[in-house]
Amino acid sequence: MSGNRQLSAAGGYRELEEKARKVRQDVIRLLLRQGKGYVGGALSAVDILTALYFRVLHVDPERPHDPERDRFVLSKGHAAVALYATLAERGFFSLEDLLARSPEGIPSFPDMRAIPGIDMSTGIPGQGLAVAVGMALGAKRRKSGVRVFVLLGDGELQDGAVWEAALAAGHFRLNNLVAIVDRNRLQHGGDTEEVVALEPIVAKWESFRWSVIPVDGHSFEELIPALENVGYAQKPTLILARTVKGKGISFMENESRWHAEVLTREDALRALEELGVNVQEIPLEL
Amino acid sequence: MSRGSASVQGFAEAVVGLAQTYPNLILLDADRAAHSFLVPFRELYPDRFINVGVAEATMVGMAAGLATTGFIPVAITLAAHASQRAFPFIAQTIAVPRLNAKIVGLEGSVLGNNAGAPRQAFFDLAVMRVLPHMTVVVPADAHEAYRATQALVAYDGPAYLRLSSWDVPAVTDRSDEFVIGRWKLLREGSDLLFVAAGALVYTALESARRLAEVGIETAVLNASTLKPLDEGSLAEWACRAGAAVTLEDHTTVGGLGGAVAEFLSRECPIPLLRLGAPEVPETAQEEILDPDRVAETSREFLERRRDKHPSGR
């Protein structure tokens, strides 16, 4: 990478960090509106989603159904609010419109029929990778340049369907497919290695004929080049993104209870304050 | 009547023709290609035939991905595997998001299938029928399977096509029109109604002939679409006959009999006998396949009804 690009990229990362902070604020606002949800795993995925939607994915909010757009599948569907906040920030729809819906109108899992810009509905763990494999294989068969990205939770790797699809992706040499594992190490029941151990993750995916790139999942400097590493080897890419559950909110970080803990108004205001929001301006009904 | 009319053959013939009409038609196979009926398609269109191996769930997920990228995927596996291994994927990646993918269940029959209960598809229709947006089709013979395949590929939405390898004499004609959700009346009658699906449409017709010999005029409906039901035809002929018998090579719980019972209990509550496989289907074959036994069971059913209500209907 040339010195100039490095410099401009560094400047861009500050802009991305600002985007990610805004997305985190919106995650908290959406969860408060929903009155439920999965905050920890949404916050750990925010930087990955920001990198994808603001730097990597070839998508146009004005043409959400463009057949030549890159695709994204949120296999860890419980982080839906992070996707909604990112899509809104990217201009697919207005976050205020979404916040104006009833809590039931903001699905806790991505629904492609209910929210613009979502490429696939996901609710059951372990299903997204197989769908992404189909998208990537379809792009190959059409000789199209479409790239497919899919984000998995680390706890999700305990689901056997993930490995069935991983086997297929390696077999079909889908070098237009990138899977990202949000490796925050905490699932609902605690540390993944204590619940059902996943390590060694790198060796597992490599043995399934994937290229594996471990990165700091909160560093745009590491995430973006890794996400762009598509189409070179005759292999799909697995990005093992080390992340922090609850990233960005001091009292949520690395606490497994924030996997699915319901936010109180007090929690939310404290979180928003940490994210630089003037909470005096937050309307009472939020 | 000619033999050699298993519905799977009509499907195999139809997809080869449809591949020309629909350049985006793509077949996915969970390693059933050894079945000779898929060979012609695979040889003519190798780029549009994907063997995913013994991975039925992944195959269905891939079909969903292909559907969102402009293909018309047709995912083929055994009906037992579709309903028991791939079902969560069919539900959540195809039916709920209403994607344009077709699931084909082979050997969807307890007839001619000596695999035993662990491997037979005898409740696939029941589980497919509960899925939102799902169209469920059971052709009676090869001719109907040919037309049904054409109709389902032309239809934009999720569908389950249940096929059988059981050879039956043809009961429909290749030139018959097939409309999703529309049942055909194959025989008129005002004493009793047979509602039959799949290979048992033939049995229903034969049984109706035997009943006619003893003075019971039996109407026969070919219920080739299980979902959506042809409510108009069902209500009309059930009310006219005043008693009905359903016939299916599937458990009597939740399939055709279940669907008909649900509807008639609301629209036309008449006595209904559901013939099919018991919950474990080992002994089902003769009871539902032999026209003499079906006719006799149906006659007894009508008589018991007259005993209960001697004044008639």
List the helices and strands and how they pair.
The complex is a heterodimer of chains A (about 290) and B (about 325).
Chain A: H1 3-34, H2 39-56, E1 71-74, H3 80-90, H4 95-99, H5 128-141, E2 148-153, H6 160-171, E3 177-183, E4 186-187, E5 190-191, H7 192-195, H8 201-207, E6 211-216, H9 220-227, E7 237-242, H10 265-274
Parallel strand pairs in A: 1-2, 2-3, 3-7, 6-7
Antiparallel strand pairs in A: 4-5
Chain B: H1 7-21, E1 25-29, H2 39-44, E2 49-51, H3 56-68, E3 72-78, H4 79-84, H5 87-95, E4 102-106, H6 124-129, E5 135-137, H7 142-154, E6 159-162, E7 184-187, E8 192-196, H8 200-213, E9 218-222, E10 225-227, H9 231-241, E11 244-251, H10 256-267, E12 272-277, H11 284-289, H12 291-308
Parallel strand pairs in B: 1-2, 1-3, 3-4, 4-6, 5-6, 8-9, 8-11, 11-12
Antiparallel strand pairs in B: 5-10, 7-9
Pfam families (chain A): Transketolase_N (PF00456)
Protein name (chain A): Transketolase
Cofactor (chain A): thiamine diphosphate
Description of the molecule:
The complex is a heterodimer of chains A (286) and B (313). With 286 residues, chain A is α/β, with parallel strands linked by helices. Chain A has one domain: Thiamin diphosphate (ThDP)-binding fold, Pyr/PP domains (Rossmann fold), CATH 3.40.50. In chain A, strand 6, helix 9 and strand 7 form a beta-alpha-beta unit. Chain B is of the alpha/beta class and 313 residues long. Chain B has two domains: 156 residues, 3-Layer(aba) Sandwich (Rossmann fold); 125 residues, 3-Layer(aba) Sandwich (Rossmann fold), CATH 3.40.50.920. In chain B, the strands form two sheets. A seven-stranded mixed sheet of chain B has the order 2-1-3-4-6-5-10, with helices on both faces. Chain B has a five-stranded mixed sheet with strand order 7-9-8-11-12, sandwiched between helices. In chain B, helix 10 links the parallel strand 11 and strand 12. In chain B, helix 9 crosses helix 10. The longest helix of chain B is centred in the last third of the chain and has 18 residues. The radius of gyration of chain B is 19 Å and the shape is elongated. The mean pLDDT of chain B is 92. Classes of the chains: A alpha/beta (286), B alpha/beta (313). At the A-B interface, helix 5 and helix 6 of A face helix 3 and helix 5 of B. Chain A: Its cofactor is thiamine diphosphate. Chain A: InterPro entries: THDP-binding, Transketolase_N. Chain A: This is Transketolase. Chain A: Belongs to the transketolase family.
